[in-house]
């Protein structure tokens, strides 16, 4: 595949002059609530419809619904089971989960469990559509391997993987970005005995937090520059937004700039950046200007080996970070704000905690968190592949390409054999958060130097910064079949920046 080096790109760490995110911001015309006035909510945990036969079965209806996101107005959404975010699925490592999805939306959908170690037929390949009743549309790019179903589909997830927080979201060919924007995203937690033995903060002190940006029209409806607002036929966004759509309202679990009452003890924040294109750099600041440590205990694919303490933490789209913040000593009645150093105006604010009372802390952060984080050695690798992620030409106009090529479902871009260890080297023009399906990977290097401290552990998204090259290493294990890797800037993904990985 095409490669490294092109004029005008600086390699390495010199990135002084680049924007915080790649994309263009929509300016809301709605009147917006002040930050830290609305209470945080945690999405409800979905109850299984059956737990017999060694697996858990769930049902989700994909449906239109509306919610009062901005006080006094309603926002029409596309939802999993009527809420945004969708309900959280809780599962146990090694215990399979089946989710029966029913599509009552006006367009085809595809469910992908992001970070899941899932057989190919259940991984939500973009052409494996679940068609709504009476659908007559034709695919833009026919795919003979597509497994479409009418109205419903059972997705089975073996859950044979480390405990962590995954998320599920729409992955329909050409229309993933607007579908996620409209609300098709939810969280999925995998638990296991090893992690539960650790005494990390739990119960009320464990908070799954889906962070996403949106913009709103005066009537409360979502803004989005889709070329075809019905999302039926013509993919893509207005030209000025083709680098990514940024909102000016920061939602946490679907609520604009919420505030949450806490005891003055450690809390475990399970952070997910579910934004289409926005990057965040989070820091926790007390009212009197002190910064609290963000102690990282986990990455996309579960616990890291040892805790890593950060003053601030960058989150690229689709990344998850598992972080402990200790509110001990913060005066009762005062706040700790989680702020975004990459934001300006409203996008600088994210979430606030109001300290309600002092309390005994029963939690503990061990010095060793996990001893099962895979360590792949460069010497084990049987291939080194290089991929460039850049602006380029698609079939119909400008888009985003990998190694010079825009996505085609029928073309195999990489083929490897089950069990192979490989080093992949990525180079970027602008920000590209690159995601591999099926496998977790380790970050080997950035710009020829060591990874960032926050690159610790097993990841499934790697944030490429403008002009940067990064190496990752992984073993392709689990299942044979057709998988994807792609940019998780959702607009880039829809506009070509995706490729096929065939495991044989
Ligand atoms: Cu989060 Cu291919 O997906
Ligand atoms: Cu994924
Ligand atoms: Cu990209």
Automatic annotation (TrEMBL):
A GO molecular-function annotation: copper ion binding
Gene3D superfamilies the record matches: Cupredoxins - blue copper proteins
InterPro entries: Cu-oxidase-like_N (IPR011707), Cu-oxidase_2nd (IPR001117), Cu-oxidase_C (IPR011706), Cu-oxidase_fam (IPR045087), Cu_oxidase_Cu_BS (IPR002355), Cupredoxin (IPR008972)
Residue spans crossing the bilayer: none
Record SUPFAM superfamilies: Cupredoxins
Record-stated family: Belongs to the multicopper oxidase family.
Domain Plastocyanin-like: 64-193, 263-328, 398-502
Protein name, UniProt field: Copper oxidase
Keywords: Metal-binding, Oxidoreductase
Domain of life: Bacteria
Any one Pfam family match given in the protein's UniProt record, by short name: Cu-oxidase
Family matches, as PANTHER family: BILIRUBIN OXIDASE, CUPREDOXIN SUPERFAMILY PROTEIN
């Amino acid at each position: 595949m095409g490669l490294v080096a092109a004029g005008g790109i600086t390699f390495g760490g010199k990135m002084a002059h680049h924007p915080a995110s790649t994309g263009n911001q929509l300016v809301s015309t709605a009147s917006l609530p002040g930050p830290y006035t609305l209470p945080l909510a945690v999405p409800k945990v979905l109850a299984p419809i059956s737990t017999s036969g060694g697996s858990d079965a769930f049902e989700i209806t994909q449906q239109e619904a509306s919610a009062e996101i901005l006080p006094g107005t309603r926002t029409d959404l596309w939802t999993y089971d009527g809420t945004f975010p969708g309900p959280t699925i809780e599962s146990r490592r090694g215990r399979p989960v089946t989710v029966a999805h029913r599509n009552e939306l006006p367009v085809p959908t595809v469910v992908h469990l992001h970070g899941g170690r899932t057989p190919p037929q259940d991984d939500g390949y973009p052409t494996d559509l679940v068609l709504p009743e009476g659908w007559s549309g034709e695919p833009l790019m026919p795919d003979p391997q597509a497994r479409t179903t009418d109205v419903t589909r059972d997705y089975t997830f073996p859950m044979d993987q480390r405990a962590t927080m995954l998320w599920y979201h729409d992955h329909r060919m050409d229309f993933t970005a607007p579908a996620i924007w409209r609300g098709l995203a939810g969280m999925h937690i995998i638990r296991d005995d090893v992690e539960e033995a650790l005494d990390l903060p739990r119960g009320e002190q464990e908070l799954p937090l889906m962070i996403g940006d949106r913009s709103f029209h005066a009537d409360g409806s979502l803004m989005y520059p889709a070329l075809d607002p019905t999302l039926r036929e013509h993919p893509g966004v207005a030209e000025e937004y083709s680098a990514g759509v940024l909102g000016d309202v920061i939602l946490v679990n679907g609520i604009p700039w919420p505030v949450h009452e806490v005891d003055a003890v450690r809390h475990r924040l399970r952070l997910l950046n579910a934004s289409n294109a926005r990057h965040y750099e989070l820091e926790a600041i007390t009212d009197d200007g002190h910064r609290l440590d963000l102690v990282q205990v986990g990455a996309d694919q579960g616990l890291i080996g040892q805790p890593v303490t950060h003053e601030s933490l960058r989150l690229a789209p689709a990344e998850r970070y598992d972080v402990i913040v200790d509110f001990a000593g913060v005066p009762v009645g005062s706040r700790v704000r989680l702020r975004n150093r990459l934001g300006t105006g409203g996008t600088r604010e994210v979430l606030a905690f109001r300290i309600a009372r002092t309390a005994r802390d029963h939690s503990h952060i061990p010095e060793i968190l996990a001893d099962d984080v895979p360590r792949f050695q460069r010497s084990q690798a049987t291939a080194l592949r290089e991929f460039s992620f850049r602006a380029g030409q698609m079939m119909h106009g400008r888009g985003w390409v990998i190694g010079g090529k825009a996505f085609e479902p029928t073309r195999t871009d990489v083929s490897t054999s089950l069990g192979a260890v490989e080093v992949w080297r990525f180079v970027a023009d602008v920000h590209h958060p690159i995601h591999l399906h099926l496998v977790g990977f380790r970050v080997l290097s950035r710009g020829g130097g060591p990874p960032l401290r926050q690159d610790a552990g097993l990841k499934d998204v790697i944030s490429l910064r403008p002009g940067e090259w990064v190496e990752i290493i992984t073993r392709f294990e689990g299942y044979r079949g057709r998988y994807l890797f792609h940019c998780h800037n959702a607009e880039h993904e829809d506009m070509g920046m995706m490729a096929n990985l065939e495991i044989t």
